From TrEMBL:
Lineage: Bacteria, Pseudomonadati, Myxococcota, Polyangia, Polyangiales
InterPro entries associated with the record: NpmA, SAM-dependent_MTases_sf
Keywords of the record: Methyltransferase, Transferase
Name of the protein described by the UniProt record: rRNA methyltransferase
Pfam families, sorted: NpmA
GO annotation (BP), single: methylation
A molecular function GO annotation: methyltransferase activity
Species per Swiss-Prot/TrEMBL record: Sorangium cellulosum
SUPFAM superfamilies (UniProt xref): S-adenosyl-L-methionine-dependent methyltransferases (SSF53335)
């Protein structure tokens, strides 16, 4: 798999990754990580967790991956890693690692795969997670509330009924049992760059979707 470290990209094997994971109790994988700040912050807040951000746009992870690579005293995060990949082509090296899988404010093909939903993508996400692990997704509900706009993007409705009738069975077939689907009231569970951007735009609504990896 391709790992972004500052301006450079490196090819890592599963053995390279396992060498880094040794000694950590938990693994978090954040798909569609964007600028990687959520992963950098999570790594700082949870010293027992190895945090992996995944995004096809490697150049957007340059700055944070450079910061993470410095000495700890200078803001380094030895427990943070940034992988260049899309959800449609996730590296085998990440299989079965995640205790927690997060997808924060996805857009484009990552968003449509979660809400249409697309079985191959759900199955690929499921392969990242250990049995009993959790999926936590934050979805920009306002995109769906503007029906003409959502329709132009080819997005379906995103309502409680749609989650029950369409998403729940499809997620279950992929090995995710949906636990919760609700609009977020109060503080966001994850502080991310895009989440902060949306919070500044008044009236934005966010849906929290959580699921447990089963089977
Ligand atoms: C609105 S940004 C959110 C970034 C970050 N999670 C945050 O909350 O700040 C959406 C991200 O989804 C990523 N993305 C879009 N399509 C993707 C795909 N097919 N696979 C993986 N990531 C994708 C984009 O590159 C972008 O970084």
């Amino acid at each position: 798999m391709i790992v972004q470290i500052g301006k450079e990209s490196h090819a890592w094997t599963r053995a390279d990754l396992e060498g880094k994971l040794a000694g950590y109790a938990r693994v978090l994988i954040d798909v569609g990580t964007g600028d990687g700040r959520f992963v950098y912050r999570s790594a700082g807040a949870h010293a027992d967790t190895y945090c992996i951000g995944v995004d096809p746009a490697g150049e957007r992870m340059r700055e944070v991956s450079w910061r993470a690579g410095r000495k700890v005293a200078r803001g380094g995060r030895p427990n943070a890693l940034f992988v260049v990949a899309s959800v449609q082509a996730l590296p085998e090296e990440l299989t079965g690692l995640a205790h927690t899988l997060t997808v924060n404010f996805p857009w484009a093909s990552l968003l449509s795969a979660l809400v249409l939903p697309e079985a191959p993508v759900l199955e690929a996400l499921r392969r990242l997670v250990r049995p009993g692990g959790e999926l936590i997704a934050l979805l920009n509900q306002s995109v769906f509330d503007d029906r003409p706009y959502a329709a132009r993007l080819g997005l379906p409705e995103l309502s409680d009924a749609q989650v029950e009738e369409v998403l729940r069975p499809a997620y279950r077939a992929a090995g995710f049992a949906i636990r919760e689907s609700a609009l977020v009231e109060g503080d966001m569970p994850h502080q991310t760059s895009w989440g902060q951007h949306l919070t500044l735009a008044s009236g934005r609504r966010t849906r929290l979707l959580t699921a447990e990896a089963i089977g």
